[in-house]
Amino acid sequence: MTTTTTQVPAVTDYLVAAAKASTALGRARPKPVHVFDGPNPSKTLSGLSRALWIGFNPANQGEPAATASQDFAFLDAGRTRDEDGVIDCAAQFWSGDTTVKTARDGCDAIVAAVELLLRGTPQTGGPGDASMGGLALWSGVTGPFDWHPAQVTKGAVVLCVFRIAYRARLVTS
């Protein structure tokens, strides 16, 4: 008998791997987005112009990285459950320019690239996979979108905190 207690770890792993493999994010050229699984090691942001955190909110580090709730999906002796989950994510952009619009547009492009990872399905086409490789019934980028612009000594920086929501079916077999 196999049981999946929650899809939070698998969904997080999928998102990190997909973002790192994406030619619009982790494999972007000439400047890749640095993808972090949770909090980054201290001082690694020095000089990074583009960053994406999966399962972490740098603006509010004490908050949970993910939440999920479950309910019985069918009357099948409790073997099947539906899980609704939310993973916190954040995108950050800095270019050295003091114009906030430049940083905001760059940050928005990172969030849009994440959204495209979850658009469509392998069966219907599209740039991404809303089923996360079969882990979820559906998924997508959702709000609230919290925008944090700032002027630092080397220019404007914008951080956008957003969420990825999913619904998964957990089955005991």
Which CATH C-level class is it? Alpha Beta
**Average pLDDT figure:** 89
Unreliable residue stretches: none
Q: CATH topology, what is it called? A: STM4215-like
Q: Using the 3D structure, state the CATH architecture.
A: 2-Layer Sandwich
Fraction of residues in H or I helices:
10-25%
The gross shape turns out to be elongated
How many structural domains does the protein architecture include? 1
User: Largest beta sheet, briefly?
Assistant: 6 strands, mixed
DSSP, total strands: 6
| Annotation field: number of helices | 2
Distance between the termini: 5 Å
Hey, roughly how much beta strand do the residues contain? 35-45%
Structural class: alpha+beta
Rg result: 17 Å
The sequence of SSEs as H and E is HEEEEHEE
Summarize the SSE layout with pairings.
Blueprint: H1 8-21, E1 34-37, E2 50-54, E3 66-72, E4 80-94, H2 100-117, E5 138-152, E6 155-171
Parallel strand pairs: 1-2
Antiparallel strand pairs: 2-4, 3-4, 4-6, 5-6
